[in-house]
Structure formats: C-alpha cells, structure tokens
C-alpha cells in the first residue's frame, strides 16, 4: 500500500493547476446512460473514482474510449472521454462494484428513465455517517417507478416510462437532485424539483443535459423545472474546475505561508471558503489565470464556521479548514451540519499535536504554536488531505498511510505540492 512522506516547514510558492471536478465528472459520466449517442467529456480528472466508474458503466455495456494527447493540448489538461451507451446490456449494478463508490448508485435514475428498470445494490455503510439513499428512491417513486427492496438491492420498474411530478426534498441532497434531474429529462410531462441542491456540479450536469437536448430551467436555484423529452442526443462538454481541490490548496498555502496561483480556479465556485480564508488572515485575489492566495508574515486568525449546502461553507472543506485552524492564534469553532461522524480526522490531527475538543456536531480547536510530524492514517478522502495540510506545517517527518483514499479524489497531489516547494513524496508498496 502506498504511503506519502512529508517533511514540513516549507512555504509554498508557485502555481498549481486545478483539475476538473470529481463531483461533476462522475454524474456527467453517468448521464451518458440517458442517450444512445456519444457523449464526449473533456477535462476529466485522472482519479481512481473515475476509473472505478468506467468499470461500473462497462458492466452495463457502455463503451468508453480515452482519447490520447492531441497536438496543442495543455500538459495539465484532464482526459477526454468518448462515452457511448448505444446498447445497455445489463440494468443491474452489483454489490461488489457499487459498494466501493457511493456515487455509482446514481446510475439508478438514468437506467430507470431510459430502460424502464434497474436493480442497483444499496451502497452500504460509509466512514462518514450513515448516508442513506431514501430520498433518491423517493424521487423515482414520485416519477412513477415501482420500488422493491430485496436482498440488499433496490429494484425499480417503470414499464411504461416515467411521468413528470412534483418532487419536494425535505433536506438538500446533491445525489437526490442529480437523480431527480437526470430521470426527469426523459419522463413524460413536467417535473418540478423543490428544495433542489444548488451546488455548481449540479449546474454543470444540467448544462450538459441541456446540450444533449433536455429542457431544464432554474439550474442553480432551489426550484428546478424539467420538461421531459422523448430522447436525448450526444454532446461535448468540459468538466468545470474542482472547487474542493481549489479550496484544499488554498488552505495549504494559507497554512504554510507563501504565495500560490491556483490556475484555472473560479472564485464564484467557493466564495464562502475564500471569505473564511480572508478572515483567517490570507490575502485572496482573482486574476485572469485563476485565484492567487498568499500569507506573508501575519499569523493565522481563528474563525467560527458552520458547514452548509452551497453557497455556504462546504462540508468537503471542513477537515482541511480544521487542519489550518490547529495553528491559529486563538480558539476556533467548526460545526458540521451535513454529515454526522465526519470528524475522523480529529484523532489523527491530535497525533500531530493539535488540540481539538469534540462536542456533538461542534469541534473546538485551540491553536497551538507548533505541530510535530508523526505517522498518521488516512480515513476518508477529505480527512486524509487535511492530514497532508497539517503535515506541511509540522516539524519533521509525517508519514500518511492508506493513501488510496487520496487517490480517489486528488490528481497528482504530490507533484502539484512539490512543484511549489513542498517536501513530499510517494513511497510505493
Ligand atoms: C455529495 C458529494 C459529497 C459531498 C456531499 C454534500 C459527490 C460525488 N459527492 O454527496 O462529496 O460531501 O454531496 O455536499 O458529489 N441524505 C439522506 N437521504 C438520502 C440522501 C442524502 O438523508 O437519500 C442526507 C445525507 O445523509 C446527508 C445529506 O442528506 O446528511 C446530504 O447528502 P447528499 O447531498 O445527498 O450527499 P451526496 O450526494 O452523497
């Protein structure tokens, strides 16, 4: 199993190219199930989760070709995928594939919408809370699917196709909104999705669906209206930049001090996080090339933050912010409202010398003068990168074990950070 070795204490200086967003690339790939024609996706990040989803889609009969480099390609541009679901040969998504990646459950909506049936394994437990799929099932039921749960599988049937309906989500859910939106594109009549998620990745998927011929209004608001069409066609779409990767490297730059340009990053995708970084003492500016983040001399100021659905502060940056606050001059409070148990990083950060006290949903972080390197264990995707941020500022060596979590969501992390002066390397085996 690979490990990452970091020797802390180096300021970051330079440029980091931001990759395409994992959380948009995955549902965009899944949207290919809605059409017989080819969907071409550009700027797809090279991540373990993308490869895993290629396997899952392959099991349904989807052909995916990854285009080689073309003349004039920018070195850091993501992959181009040509995805064709001309013939879906199997509408079952088995346990051994779905259990490895929760978002693969999202094939459910498109399969029922196009094929009138789907049998998808329940995703199972997860390190960051129970993460149920009841609201995704509710959305399809509202659209007229008959649902049964049998042997750990959710089975949906809609022999005569789906029909438009009003879907009111009792809480904001990204996966629920993706599912409702994709399924509604091929339903007969009008669907209204109330309390829809407003995350930029939903807007990106919606814009791609519109290019494929879907009729959608209200993207980016909490009320999305979809007029069903009888078929969708192919399209070409470029994945938007990853706001979580952007925020992660912004926190790393704020943590070590220095001056970093996050190339291709778009500030409107993470304004709440940038505001918090400014409160913490970082200088943030937008340029034509991306976002510049610097911290020179000034210490890190403590903050009070509560995670919220977009446009609030994202839960996917909570662990990284906590790492930053371990070195603040004073006491911070971070409240997690989206996922229970999303504090697996706390005990690992403590191994580096952080002072964090947990009380229900709220973590109280007392900033310390120095962190000290230690062996730590990656527990989930965002938690593991918070350990990297802490290690960049810790004295001595930190060894991060179980880095396969990082490979699920961060493309070429060691390369991007070492390019800015960090002492970080991967030890294979
Ligand atoms: C997506 C993101 C994940 C991010 C999360 C919240 C992807 C691939 N993953 O996950 O990185 O952390 O949004 O921004 O895009 N819930 C239910 N019932 C359901 C579905 C969700 O109760 O059927 C609850 C969840 O337990 C959670 C809340 O709703 O408390 C939000 O979850 P949701 O937005 O659905 O997260 P995901 O789509 O799984």
Describe this structure as you would to a colleague.
The structure is a single chain. The chain is α/β, with parallel strands linked by helices and about 425 residues long. It has 2 domains: about 5-20 and about 240-425, Alpha-beta prism (UDP-n-acetylglucosamine1-carboxyvinyl-transferase, Chain), CATH 3.65.10.10; about 20-230, Enolpyruvate transferase domain (UDP-n-acetylglucosamine1-carboxyvinyl-transferase, Chain, Alpha-beta prism). It has 14 helices and 24 strands. It has helices at about 20-30, 50-60, 95-100, 110-115, 135-140, 175-185, 200-210, 245-255, 270-280, 320-325, 345-350, 380-395, 405-410, 415-420; strands spanning about 5, 10-15, 40-45, 65, 80-85, 90-95, 115-120, 145-150, 155, 165-170, 190-195, 215, 225, 235-240, 260-265, 285, 290-295, 305, 330-335, 355-360, 360-365, 375, 395-400, 425. The strands form 6 sheets. Strands 22-23-1-24 form a 4-stranded mixed β-sheet. Strands 2-15-17-16 form a 4-stranded mixed β-sheet, with helices on one face. Strands 4-5-3-14 form a 4-stranded mixed β-sheet, covered by helices on one side. Helix 1 packs parallel to helix 7. The longest helix has 14 residues, at about 245-255. The mean pLDDT is about 95. The structure holds uridine-diphosphate-N-acetylglucosamine. Uridine-diphosphate-N-acetylglucosamine binds near residues 102, 129, 135, 173 and 315.
């Amino acid at each position: 199993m690979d490990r990452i070795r970091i020797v802390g204490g180096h300021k970051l200086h330079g440029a980091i190219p931001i990759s395409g967003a994992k959380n948009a690339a995955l549902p965009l790939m899944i949207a290919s199930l809605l059409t017989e024609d080819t969907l071409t996706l550009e700027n797809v990040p090279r991540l373990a989760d993308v490869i895993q989803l290629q396997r899952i889609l392959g099991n349904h009969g989807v052909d995916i070709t990854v285009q080689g480099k073309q003349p004039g390609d920018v070195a850091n541009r993501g992959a181009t995928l040509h995805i064709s679901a001309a013939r879906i040969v199997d509408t079952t998504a088995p346990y051994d594939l779905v259990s490895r990646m929760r978002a693969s459950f999202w094939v459910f909506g498109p399969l029922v919408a196009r094929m009138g049936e789907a049998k998808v394994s329940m995703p199972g437990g997860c390190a960051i809370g129970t993460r149920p799929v009841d609201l995704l099932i509710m959305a399809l039921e509202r659209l007229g699917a008959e649902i049964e749960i049998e042997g750990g599988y959710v089975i949906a049937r809609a022999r005569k196709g789906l029909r438009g309906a009003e879907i009111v989500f009792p809480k904001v859910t990204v996966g629920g909104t993706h599912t409702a939106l994709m399924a509604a594109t091929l339903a007969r009549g009008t669907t209204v999705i109330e309390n829809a998620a407003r995350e930029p990745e939903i807007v990106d998927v919606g814009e791609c669906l519109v290019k494929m011929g879907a009729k959608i209004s209200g993207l980016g608001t909490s009320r999305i209206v979809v007029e069903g069409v009888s078929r969708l066609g192919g399209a070409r779409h470029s994945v938007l930049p990853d706001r979580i990767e952007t925020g992660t490297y912004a926190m790393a730059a704020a943590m070590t001090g220095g001056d970093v340009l996050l190339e291709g990053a778009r500030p409107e995708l993470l304004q709440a996080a940038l505001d918090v970084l400014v409160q913490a003492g970082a200088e943030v500016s937008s340029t034509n090339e991306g976002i510049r983040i610097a911290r020179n001399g000034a210490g890190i100021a403590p903050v009070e933050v509560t995670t919220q659905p977009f446009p609030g502060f994202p839960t996917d940056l909570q662990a990284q912010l906590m790492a930053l606050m371990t070195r603040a001059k004073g006491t911070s409070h971070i409240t997690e409202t989206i996922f229970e148990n999303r504090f697996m990083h706390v005990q690992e950060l403590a191994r580096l010398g952080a002072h964090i006290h947990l009380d229900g949903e709220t973590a109280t972080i007392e900033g310390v003068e120095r962190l000290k390197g230690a062996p730590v264990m990656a527990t989930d995707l965002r938690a593991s990168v918070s350990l990297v941020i802490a290690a960049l500022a810790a004295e001595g060596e930190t060894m991060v074990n179980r880095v396969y979590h990082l490979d699920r969501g961060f493309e070429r992390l060691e390369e991007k950070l070492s390019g800015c002066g960090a002492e970080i390397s991967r030890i294979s085996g």
